[in-house]
Amino acid sequence: MSPPFTINDLWAISPEMVLTTAAIILLILDFLLPPGRRAVVGYTGLLGIGATFAALGASAGVRAEAFSGMYLSDPFTLFFKTIFLLIAALIILISLNYLSVEGVDQGEYYALVLFATVGMMIMAASGDLLSLYIGLETMSLSIYVLAGFLRKDRRSNEAALKYLLMGAFSSGILLYGMTLLYGLSGSTNLKAISRTLAAQDLHNPALTLAMILLAAGFGFKIATVPFHMYLPDAYEGAPTSVTAFMSVGPKAAGFAVLLRVFLLAIPSLQGSWVQLFYVLSVLTMTVGNVVAIAQKNIKRMLAYSSIAHVGYLLIGLVAGSPLGISAILLYLLVYILMNVGAFAMVILLCRQGLRGDQIEDFSGLAQKSPLAAATMLIFLLSLAGIPPTGGFVAKFYVFGAAIKAGYVLLAVIAVVNTAISLFYYMRVAMVMYMREEPSPITALSPSRPLHWALAIAILGILIIGVYPGPFLGWAWVSLTGLL
Amino acid sequence: MELGLFIVLALVAMASAIAVIIQRNPVYSALYLILTFLSLAGLYLQLQAQFIAAIQVIVYAGAIMVLFLFVIMLLDLRKEEQRAVKGGYQLLIGLLLAAILLGELGLVFGGGVLKGVPGEFSPEKVSALGNTQVVGRLLFTDFLLPFELTSVILLVAIVGAIVLAKRRLD
Amino acid sequence: MPIEYLPILALIVLAVLFALGTLLMSSIFGPKRPTPEKLSPYECGITPVGTARERFSVKFYLIAMLFIVFDIEIVFLYPWAVVFRQLRLFGLIEMAIFILILCIGLCYAWKKGGLEWE
Lengths: 483, 170, 118
Prior knowledge:
By secondary structure, chain B is mainly α. Chain B folds into 3 domains: 1-82, NADH-ubiquinone/plastoquinone oxidoreductase chain 6, subunit NuoJ (Four Helix Bundle (Hemerythrin (Met), subunit A), Up-down Bundle); 83-113; 121-170, no CATH class. Chain B has helices spanning 2-22, 26-46, 50-74, 78-82, 89-109, 123-129, 131-140, 144-165. Chain C is 69% helix and 0% strand. Chain C is built from 3 helices and no strands.
């Protein structure tokens, strides 16, 4: 019996192999190094991400359905792997100082971030329901632990527990959907499922049920509205750096598998799932934006704002055109930069014994540190979608795709929602600029890695905002093999 | 014989599952859960899935139940046992939702709507080759990637257990 | 259902019948003259102390979780053992990688004191 894979297959998964090895090295380093020197683990993690990036570059040209179709190496995979590595690097940068401020300077943290990233990369690359599920669980399990990383903090424990319970529940729903799909098509391979279903009668209630269950399962991961209840509590309680990770990582990975499964395995059902996502999109952005207005805690506000953004992202899927899907990819890239940036600002305000996660904590920031206030302002403008930021460009393309595909009403609803969102984003700006400082707050907790992360995020948002062409082109090229 | 055995196993599985939720003493509930798992293992055997049946006994009835019992003993549940089960609207809504779900499932699966597509491995082929052999062959060839990834999940589980449950790290 | 499982079925039926039968018989035929001594739980002949429903230490839980992880590892070894002759060398390498990753997990748990009783 010959090996079930080729050298080409190994090339295709070399980024995952490098990253897994890096994560394992971090674990070993963690127990070899003395307790005071754990930041070294974090920097080694950055090194590992760099090495993975190099492997990604070296294997970028490999096109394969590796490991019997389990793993697809195509431009779509490449796009998502790149943004996952970007996420991991940003998260490590914003965590380096924050972990010692919170007093949980543990090496496992960085290893778990890398393991979660491996899971996301496998998700985006999976061409089979089984590898998709395993990747999803690798990601989720790591993030459950990260959410509870402040072990002495009750709110962190609560966040981890809620996230775990809802995650396990949604995995169950997802598995049920997958099982039905497998039973109806006789295969777990996405392309094989598509081929079998194309020859079948589509007026099958079991098939509709499978589709709804899959949408619900992924809906929990990306937090669309009926499945979002756990999200604000989980985001509020988790360590802020982990909240930043949770708000971008699982969502980007969730969209990757959502697009893969719905466009590759069940495109024949597009007529029905477009209606489903239309309703979900309207509900998600409206509820997210309206509830965000009432929030006093900035982490909760950003949680609801991230729900609203999922609503905007779904518009691209409803449009369903190559323009719509590439707009989703571009939107995800911008969303990652601006959301991680906003959470990095919350971390900047967090000091020993003070969480700094109330909106009130931002008051008088403009007097105290004009640069910090201006940075936050750019993130807020981008989140609201105001030119010349990347947030505007992303929204412009998504809404434009909807109008071009004939969903004018949906685009109008989205624009109204954007107007609502201005209210709560600008309230933070107002607190920063208009309010006198109520009490003299102690110094911010700046650190060089955090500044690096903020600089990357700001530059990314502004470059995409001013000169979006190459990024849109990249997103466009990434659709090869998907549509 | 086949049908009779199926009916007995299915009835035992359902009866013990109901007993799990109506028992006041959580330890008894856990023991009934073991009975449910065992009868499910019997059903898997009837479906020619010997390997899954063995796993059901080893992992679920064995390891997972140990965890269940530990959790029950970790918590102080004596007060819980004495508390009366709340009825009222919660029970009513629950029953209503259960009835709706049952109706939906009946709609989907009843009347022979669900026509699956037979896969590559027919029951005859599997029993000729041996169930565990087939699982092994597939697991270590076609499904090699998910298999290796499983070890990463298990590693994360070990790290998670230590990070969250160990009183003092270092 | 494969016919070779019939002896196991027979064994289960016999075991259940025997257990029920003994309980039933002794409750029918046994004399009942209870005293407080007889009704107290039997603890190797020593007078019972406290209740049997003590709360367990959370340390047991950590051990149990680690046990499950390695139990699942073992589950993968069964099908491997059955087919490893057909898989030849690369089958050995596959399993070696799997075990190696878990060994690192074991080392980690060990070094972090996860196996110690503090």
